[in-house]
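re: the backbone from monday

yeah here it is again, tokenized this time
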């Protein structure tokens, strides 16, 4: 077996269990070697073998620290009766807080909860240790005695307010005692006093999530981001603002994220076509992705107050270039409708709309474009059949569709 420990660890172990000697005797050297091997075996999970070595060491040294290590390894090896034998033998001589704690551990491992409580209470009579109070709380929790568990967790927290303890307290309050608001208040107070540690703020976020408290979630993720500056927390803040449809706030935080694609989507959502156009064009220049060119063209059209010939030609040019490289029916329909609506090239517009419909034959918007194209060509009966399908069968009844329907119906009547 390879035997390796860092020189520093070896030095510390030896120094902790034996006085420093410039030239150790043969017996002392044997003790040191046994100690190193025992620690190595223990650190690698060989508790039964390690306990045998600690047993030899205890026989040689009668060290209380070695006795503790012996008992701990016997417990880890699940040799509970042997562990208790050593504990009771030593306790016959005098009280010992550490041995009471170890006895409680044995009883808990054997699910002898009442005995575990008795042992740990003896340790607490010697010293009110938060670790023992927490241990006692965990026993009561295992017994489902939640009020008592909460009492001792709170007592431990009052002495040593850790994130682990406040999480346990909040968990018991929230899930077992139906003290949901109190649980959240406890976490909020702890975080204000001691900072937003990941596990504590994650617990708080999960409780706000269960209550669908979006403001609480946003507040918690802001604290996490301000503390750790990690992107997942920033993404959560943006997602929550989007969920609330607070797109302006989402945009503010998206600018910090550096996620330009997300920022572009948000500009589109709030119809901020000026910023959307600038960003889409910048992204196209950086990536040469035709999708961004098509989007820039659409935003250019949407933001323009005056749709003059020069603008229309520029938008059409961008979209024609884009659809040669990206297969997207939305862009084909958009360009087709542009050609139709502004009488730029109605036959080309109808051709593009039909290309879009070949991919999405039931799209009411694409069908409306086709109907409008036929109307512009005077093919009103064909147009009426299509627009009625859009309005009555597919149920798209926005003002523009209604206007198209009325004009096409009038045209069809005049053509009779």
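seq for it, each position gets an aa:
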């Amino acid at each position: 077996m390879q035997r390796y420990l860092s020189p520093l660890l070896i030095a510390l172990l030896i120094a902790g269990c034996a006085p420093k000697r410039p030239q150790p005797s043969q017996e002392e050297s044997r003790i040191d070697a046994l100690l190193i091997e025992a620690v190595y075996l223990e650190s690698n999970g060989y508790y039964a073998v390690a306990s045998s070595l600690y047993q030899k060491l205890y026989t040689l040294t009668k060290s209380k620290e070695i006795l503790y290590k012996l008992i701990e390894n016997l417990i880890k090896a699940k040799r509970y009766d042997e562990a208790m034998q050593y504990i009771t033998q030593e306790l016959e001589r005098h009280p010992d807080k550490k041995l009471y704690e170890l006895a409680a551990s044995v009883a808990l491992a054997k699910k002898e909860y009442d005995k575990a409580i008795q042992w740990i209470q003896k340790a607490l009579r010697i010293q009110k240790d938060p670790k023992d109070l927490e241990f006692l709380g965990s026993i009561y929790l295992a017994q489902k005695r939640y009020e008592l568990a909460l009492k001792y967790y709170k007592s431990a927290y009052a002495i040593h307010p850790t994130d682990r303890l406040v999480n346990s307290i909040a968990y018991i309050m929230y899930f077992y005692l139906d003290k949901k608001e109190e649980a959240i208040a406890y976490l909020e107070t702890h975080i204000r006093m001691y900072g937003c540690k990941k596990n504590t703020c994650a617990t708080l976020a999960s409780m706000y999530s269960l209550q669908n408290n979006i403001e609480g979630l946003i507040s918690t993720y802001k604290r996490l981001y301000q503390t750790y500056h990690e992107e997942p927390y920033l993404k959560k803040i943006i997602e929550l603002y989007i969920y609330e449809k607070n797109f302006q706030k989402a945009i503010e935080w998206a600018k910090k994220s550096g996620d330009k694609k997300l920022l572009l989507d948000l500009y589109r959502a709030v119809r901020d076509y000026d910023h959307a156009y600038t960003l889409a064009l910048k992204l196209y220049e950086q990536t040469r992705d035709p999708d961004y060119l098509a989007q820039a063209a659409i935003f250019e059209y949407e933001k323009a107050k005056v749709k003059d010939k020069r603008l229309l030609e520029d938008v059409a040019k961008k979209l024609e270039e884009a659809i040669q490289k990206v297969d997207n029916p939305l862009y084909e329909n958009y360009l087709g409708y542009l050609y139709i609506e502004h009488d730029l090239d109605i036959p080309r517009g109808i051709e593009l709309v039909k290309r879009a419909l070949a991919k999405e034959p039931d799209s009411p918007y694409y069908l409306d474009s086709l109907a409008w194209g036929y109307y512009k060509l005077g093919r009103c009966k064909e147009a009426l059949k299509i627009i009625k399908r859009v309005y009555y069968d597919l149920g798209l009844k926005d003002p523009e569709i209604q206007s198209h329907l009325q004009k096409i119906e009038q045209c069809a009547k005049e053509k009779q």
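Residues 26-43 form the longest helix (18 residues). The chain has 24 helices and no strands.
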